[in-house]
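Case study: DoxX family protein.
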Amino acid sequence: MKIATIIVRVLIGALLLFASVSFFLKLFPTPELTGDLKTFNEGMAASGYLMNLVKSLELLCGLAFVSGFFVRLANLVLLPISVNIIMVHLCLDPANIGMGALVFLGNIFLIYRYWNDYKAIFKP
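Here is what the predicted structure looks like once written out:
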């Protein structure tokens, strides 16, 4: 189980690092969005949704996962981001759900793996 945890942690960390670094450095052209996903994206932009903040958090979580430091904290920070990713793809773009599902399932696996460390959060 320890080796599986390390593999999942490093893979998810590398994916988060790649996504955030490529966003900030504009390594790839932005794909043309269509339909409901385009409307959703325009609505987020109009509302002042801070994509830079989300990508910065992804970068920090990716660094935590790859380095092995603050992994438990990074799991909790990443959870709402991964839920948002999976829900957007489930509702608006199910054909491209692959990477979102990988991040979400990896996040859930790591939370399960470190569950004993989170038990204190739920004590009154």
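For the exam, be able to explain this: The chain has one domain: 2-28+50-119.
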